[in-house]
Amino acid sequence: MRDNFSMEILMICGDINGNTVFQNVFNERVILELAKDYHLTIITDSSYNKNRELCVNKNFGKNIRIFAYPDYSNLRRILKKYKEKFIEEKQRQNITEQKEDIHVIRKYNKTFRFMREMRINIFHPVYRGKHIWIKKASKFSTNAKFYLVISISHSPACHQVAYNLIKRHKIEFGKWVQIWQEPWYQKPRVAKETKLIDYYERKFIKAADVVFFSSEFLKEYFSNKYSSFIDKIDYIDLPADRNPSYKQLNDKKEFTIGYFGAYFSDVRNIMPFYKTICKLNLKSMIVGTSDFKLDSVGNIQVIHGSIPFHECVKLEKEMHCLVIIGNNFSDILPGKIYNYCGMEKPILFILDGTDKGIAFTRKKFEKYKNIYFSSNKINAIENTIKKIINDLDSGIRYEPVDDFSACTVVNTMLKKIEKC
């Protein structure tokens, strides 16, 4: 069906600019690939307005119409404008007075955020801060007839918007396709919220024509969880296009290795890796947010908190080897593995989680020579790092994985949709 250029597709997704965080790379690559053969209408959030120039530079304007709805209330918008004008006015006054006023503003912001969080916990525990965006985006209407409606999470708020538009008969379409980059159950907070999540999750999957998850493991899990919908549940990989800027480093400089990502203690156990690079005194970088602090020691540089995407990319290019640490609380594949597969670099994949999840991961990725597996133990990590160093010294070449290219992933997705 891809040869029919006149076909229309409605996509509902969050941030569509892959230059912000890794999670949005999927949205960007799927959009650009589909736009080669289809006219796209995209419903997204207000982050598009912040990154409009970047999106236009990537030809997002060609064959694509974008409707960006705000994810904040009118009150918040008014208060933000008032704060900006207030600061601008105080900048013309004495600096001492300005500092005092800025302190008052920060205190006000802290109180405002606390009250907003309390309100969300009480009235909107499932969709959190996305409840306003759902309300606004659900007002979308058009006379166009869509071949497909594709809603992409995370956030599951995108599925709610699609559900609202369909049930309110605001759009005409052929099939509703859901893509779950990561499952909803990953971040439940309380028992009440978990029950609500299960309720909405079942409702969405029941209403959809095709439901894709991001791995065979998740396909199997949800096929068992919702056995009555097994015929509509499938999986697709996340796309990882070749990235020529991530060249393999063949210089004779000191070996460098880096981990870039969050490492909260209840999600990932980074300590064995940290202790290993301390033991070997490797030139290393660890960049990411966490609930505890690691110390910069010797050749190891630790940057706490998140950094802009372009700065992260610059640091990754300087590494001989990139590191991925599996989740210790679930068997969900870190999406970054697909992005790293598009690079000409060795990848140290430190496995964690259940035996079944580890077996799934090994089976899927062990055929690619740029991925080196290790258990999350100091001795195993040390031995694997030494093997990577030896392979680099011997002149081994690493190539990007074509199996996860955007073209391959999108074509596979469309073929599976046609069969349903």
Descriptive report:
With 420 residues, the protein is of the alpha/beta class. Helices cover 42% and strands 18% of the residues. The strands form 2 sheets. Strands 3-2-1-4-5-6-7 form a 7-stranded parallel sheet, with helices on both faces. The protein has a 6-stranded parallel sheet with strand order 10-9-8-11-12-13, with helices on both faces. It is globular, with a radius of gyration of 23 Å. The N terminus is likely disordered.
Helix segment count? 15
**Beta-strand share of residues:** 15-25%
Helix content, binned percent:
40-55%
Main beta-sheet strand count, sense and barrel state: 7 strands, parallel
Distance between the termini: 14 Å
**Mean pLDDT across all amino acids:** 81
The chain-level structural class is alpha/beta
What's the SSE pattern? EHEHHEHHHEHEHEHEEHEEHEHEHEHH
Q: How many β-strand stretches? A: 13
Low-confidence stretches: 1-5, 51-57
Task: Provide a compact summary of the structure.
This protein is an alpha/beta fold.
Topology of this protein?
Blueprint: E1 8-12, H1 25-34, E2 39-45, H2 47-50, H3 52-57, E3 64-69, H4 74-90, H5 95-123, H6 131-137, E4 145-153, H7 157-167, E5 172-180, H8 191-207, E6 210-213, H9 216-225, E7 233-235, E8 256-260, H10 271-280, E9 283-288, E10 300-304, H11 309-317, E11 321-325, H12 336-340, E12 347-351, H13 355-365, E13 371-375, H14 378-393, H15 406-419
Parallel strand pairs: 1-2, 1-4, 2-3, 4-5, 5-6, 6-7, 8-9, 8-11, 9-10, 11-12, 12-13
